[in-house]
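Form 12-C: Joint structure prediction
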Amino acid sequence: MKNSVLFKKILYVDLTTQKSFTEPSVEVAEKFIGGRGANSWILLHENKTFMSPFDPANRLVFGTGPLVGTPVPGACRFNVESLNAFTGGIGSGNAGGHFAPELRFAGYDHIVLKGRSKRPVYLFIDDGKIQIKDAIHLSGKTTWETEDMIKDELGDRKIQVACIGEAGENLVRNACIIAGKSRAIGRCGLGAVMGSKNLKAIAVRGTGSVEVARPDEFVVCVDRMIEKCFQNEGLKMLKNYGTSPFGRPLNEICAFVVRNFQDAYWEPEKLDRALPEDVESGYMKYRKHHLACFACPIHASKYWEITDGPYAGTACEGFEANLTIDFGSKLDIDYAPAFIKIHEVCSKLGIDIDNAGGSIAWAFECFEKGIITRDDTDGLELHWGDHKVVIKLLEKMARREGFGDIIAEGSKRASEIVGKGSEKYSVHIKGQDLMEPMRTAKGWALGVAVADRGGTHTRGAPETDFLRFPSEVGQKAWGVPTTDRPTSYEYKPKLVVYFERMHALSDSLGLCNILSSWEGPDLPDHNDYAKLYSLATGWDISGDEMLHIAERIHTIGKLFNIRHAHFTRKDDYPPPRLMEEPVKSGPLAGEKLEKADWDKMLDEYYELHGWDKKTSYPDRSTLKKLELSEDLLL
Amino acid sequence: MASDSTDVNAKVNMMKRIMINSETCTGCGLCEIMCSFHHRKVFSRKLASVEISELMKDGTRKITLHDRDENGHLSCDNCEGLDEPLCVTYCYTKAIVEVKSHEK
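Section 2 - Result
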C-alpha cells in the first residue's frame, strides 16, 4: 500500500451502540481519492440490498477531499452519500463553506454513520475526542438556533456545525443538511436520512494541520491556479454578484422553467423585474458583504440584508442562481426580495430548495387545473406568483402539517397519493423532482437525465451549452466543435462523459466545480488536478491516470444504482412532458427533446463508457479495465 | 497581546508590517493557512499569527493579529526576509495590507 502525509482517518460511528473507531483512509484513497469517490465506495460495500433509506442500518457517509485544508482555490467541499430517499439508488450531495476544512484539521477525511440513537443526539468531534451528546433540547429548533446553541453550550464559537432542521427531524423527503447556516447538502433527502438516525447535528472543532508531500512546489502550483481563476471573465462576474444573476441569459435560449415546465421562456417583463439587465439596479442594493468559502479567492457568496418592503429585516448568506428558477420562474414569482426570504426560510427549516420548488410547482399546477382545491390545501389558494403562500407551504411541509405532509414526499409520491391525473404534472427523473431546464440545451439535458443521483446538472451536464464557447475553442479543448450550438445533439455525449469525470475528480478532491474547466477551458482541468494531487500526495499521477480514477469513481454510482434501484436504459430518458410538449414561446419556440435523437445520444454515451446499450450496465471488460470486481454487478 | 481591527494604533503600525481592515474580510482563511505555511510548512488555522473570527450576526468577520505566542497561535515575525508578508500576498480584498514605512 502506498502512503502519504496528505491523508487522515475514517471515523466509524454506530449511533445504536454509541461506539466509534477509526481507520486510516489512505487505502480507500489510493483507488477512490476521497470525498464522493471514497464515500460511494464505502457505501457500496457497507449497504445491503434489503436496506431502505430510513433503516437504521443504512449508512450515512460524510467525506471531505484530500486537498481540503490547503490553499488550492475552492478546496473547501464535503460530500454526503447514502441511500436516496426518492430513488432508492445513490443519494449524494456536496457543499462548501467551512465545515470540511474543520473536519480535516480535526484529523478526519470521512465519517461513516450507522444505526439509530434512541434519543435525539449530536456528534461532537473535538480533534481526537469523539462524544455523542444529548440533543433533546435541540428538537424542533431551526438550523440557525441549533448551530448557535451548540456553539454556546460547548463554549467555542469556532466550532463548525452541519445539522438538520424541523424538515429532517420529521423525515420530510425534501429535507437537506445545512452547514454553517446556509450551505446545503441538497437533493436526495439526506436531511431525512440524518433525521431517521435521530442525529440532529455534527459539530466539529479541529486545531491540527494539513500537510503536503512537497510543500514549496505545491504552493507554486497553487499560485498558478489562483492566477487562472483571476483571469477568467465569468469568475470576475461571480466576485461582484455571486451566481444569482446568472440565470438571466438562459432565457435567450428558452432554458428557463416556467410555471412547472409549461414553458421554457419567461415573459421578458417578469424576467426584468426579477433579474434586471442592469444588475446593479435591482436587488443588488440588498448585498451587504462579500463572503467566501474556505480557501476561495473568488468570494462568490454574498451576505444579503433586506431593508424595505414586506421582508425587511431578512438577513442571510446564500441565495444562488437555482433559486431564481426554483422559486422564481417555476412559480412565476418575479419579486426578488422573496427569493432571499425563501432562501432564509428553507435554510432555517432545513428544506432543499430544488426539491421543494418542484413539489410546490406541481401543487400550483394541480390547483390551476382544478385537480386539487382549497379543500385539499387546508384552505390555501395556490396561485402563480404568490410568494406568501409559498412560505406557508414550506412551513407546513417542514412540519408535515395537513397538505404539507403530502408535498413533503416530493411530487412523484404526492401525485400517487392525490391521483386524479395529477401524475401528469409531476416532472421528475428517477423519482426525484427535476430542477433543471432541459428542452433546448441538448448536451446539458443528457448530463441531467443520466445523472446517478436522480437528475442533476452537477454530474456531466456541460455548461458550454449555456456559455456557448466558440466552435474553435470547443474543438481545441475537448475535440467538440458544437460548443456554440446548444440545440445540437452532435458530439454532446463526449462532453458529458468528460465533465462526469471532471466532477468525479472535483467532488473527490474536495474542490469547487465552479473554479474548474466546467466553467471554461482556461480554468483548472484534470491535468492541473493531477499536478496538485501529485505534489500533495508525493505520488506521481498523470492527467490521464486521474481521468481513469474518475471513470472508476463515476462507475461506482452506476453500480450502486443497478444493485439498489435496478435502473436500466429506460431510466435515462427525460420526463415525458419535455419530449411531448414543445417550448411555447420565445426565440426557440417549438423546440423539444426528440426521442430518436435522444436514443442516438444515449447509444454514443454508453459506448464511450463501455456500457451495454440495451441494459446500460457496464460491460465486464469495462469493470476489469477499471480494476473493479465483476461481483459488483451482482 | 493580541491586536484587532479596533486596536490598530500607532504603536502596532510602527512595529508591524501590516494593517488590518476587517470590514473587507471575506473569511476565506488563506491568510491563516499561508501564515502557518510560513512558520512551519504546514496548513493550519491554529498555528497562524493571524486569526479570523466566526461570521458575526451583521455578516462580518474580525481579524486579530497575534504579536506573541498565545493559545497555540505563533507570534507574527513580520515575514522578515520576504518581499511581502504572506498574509498580505494572499489577501485579495485588502483586508490585510502592508505598511510600507514600518520600522523594524
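Section 3 - Comments
The first helix of chain A runs from residue 26 to 32. Residues 9-205 of chain A form a domain with the Aldehyde Ferredoxin Oxidoreductase;  A, domain 1 fold (CATH 3.60.9.10).
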